[in-house]
Amino acid sequence: MTYLHAAYIATWVIHITYLSFLVRRYSQVRKEAEELRRKQQ
Amino acid sequence: MSRTFTILAIVAAGLLSWGLYGALVGAPTEQTMGDVQRIFYYHVPSAWTAFTLFAVNLVASVVYLIKRNPKADALALASAEVGVVFCTVVLVTGPIWARPVWGIWWTWDLRLTLTLVLWLIYVSYLVLRRFSSGSQTPVMAAVLAILGALDVPLVYFSIWFFRTQHPQPVVGGGGSIDPRMLHVLLLNWAAFSCFGALVCWSRYRVEVVQREVEEMLALESLLEPRGAR
C-alpha cells in the first residue's frame, strides 16, 4: 500500500469512527429523552 | 432532520466525491514528489477546517462569557470536538507524507510542534468538559478556549516568519502552484468545510438533546418525594 492510500484511508477511518460514535450517542440520548418525556406525562 | 441539513449533506457528499476524484485523478502529478504530494489535498483542507472550527469555538466562548448563553456554550463544545477530529487528521496525514519525502515521520520543527500543542490544548479543553462537573466548568473552558485560540495564528504564521522544515505556503504566501492543483485544493477545502459544518451541526444537536435530558433528570429528582429516592 502506498503512502498516498494510507493517508486517504487514515483520514476516512478517523472521520467514520467519529461519525459512528456520534450516531450511537445521538440515538442513546434521544432514547433517554423520549423515556423521560413519557415518564413525565 | 431539517431541510437545510439534508441539502448540506447532499452538497457535502457531492463535493467530497468530486474532491476525491480531483485529488487522485484530476490533479497533475507533482514532478519532484510524485503521487505522494496528493496527500496535500486532504492535509491542507483538513488544517483549514480545523482552524475554522477553532475560530467558531473562540467566538462562541466569547459570546458565552459575555451573555452566558447555553447555546453558545454547546456550540463551543461541538466546534472544539470536531476541530480536534480534523486536527487529528492533520497530525496523521502529515507524518505519512513526511516519511517518503523527508525520510522521517516526525521532527520537532516549529510548525509541527505548534500544531501538536494546539491539538493538546483542545484535547485538554475536551477533558475539562468531560470530567469536571462544577457550575464554573463552562466558564473555565471558555477561558481555556480563548487562550488556546492564540495558538492558531502562531501555527498558521510560523512558516511565514520562521525558517522551518515544513513546506512554505503555496497559497497567499508568494509561492506558486499549478492552477489545476489550486482548483483541486480549493475544491477539497470547500468539501471539507461543508463536511465539517455538517458534523459540527450534528454534534451541536447531540449536545442540545443531552442537556435537555440532564434538565429533565434534575427536574425529576426535585419532584420526587424524599422517601421515594
Q: Could you describe the 3D structure shown?
A:
- The complex is a heterodimer of chains A (41) and B (229).
- With 41 residues, chain A is an all-alpha fold.
- Helices cover 93% and strands 0% of the residues of chain A.
- Chain A is built from one helix and no strands.
- Chain A has one helix at 3-40.
- Chain B has one domain (3-228).
- The radius of gyration of chain B is 21 Å and the shape is globular.
- The mean pLDDT of chain B is 89.
- Chains A and B meet through helix 1 of A and helix 1, helix 2, helix 3 and helix 7 of B.
Key features of this structure:
heterodimer; A: 41 residues; mainly alpha; 93% helix; 0% strand; rod-shaped; B: 229 residues; 77% helix; globular
Structure summarized in a few sentences:
The complex is a heterodimer of chains A (41) and B (229). With 41 residues, chain A is mainly α. Chain A is 93% helix and 0% strand.
What characteristic shape of chain A results from the CA principal axes? Answer: rod-shaped
Report the strand count of chain A: 0
What is the residue-mean pLDDT of chain B, rounded to a whole number? Answer: 89
Radius of gyration of chain B: 21 Å
CA(first)-CA(last) distance of chain A? 57 Å
- Tell me the domain tally of chain A: 1
Helix content of chain B: over 70%
Can you tell me the overall shape of chain B? Answer: globular
Largest sheet of chain B: none
Strand content of chain B: under 5%
**Helix and strand composition category of chain A:** mainly alpha
The rounded Rg of chain A comes to 18 Å
Strand segment count of chain B? 0
Topology, pairings included?
The complex is a heterodimer of chains A (41) and B (229).
Chain A: H1 3-40
Chain B: H1 3-26, H2 40-67, H3 70-102, H4 110-131, H5 137-149, H6 151-161, H7 179-223
Helix pairs in contact in B: 1-7, 2-3, 2-5, 2-7, 3-4, 3-7, 4-5, 4-6
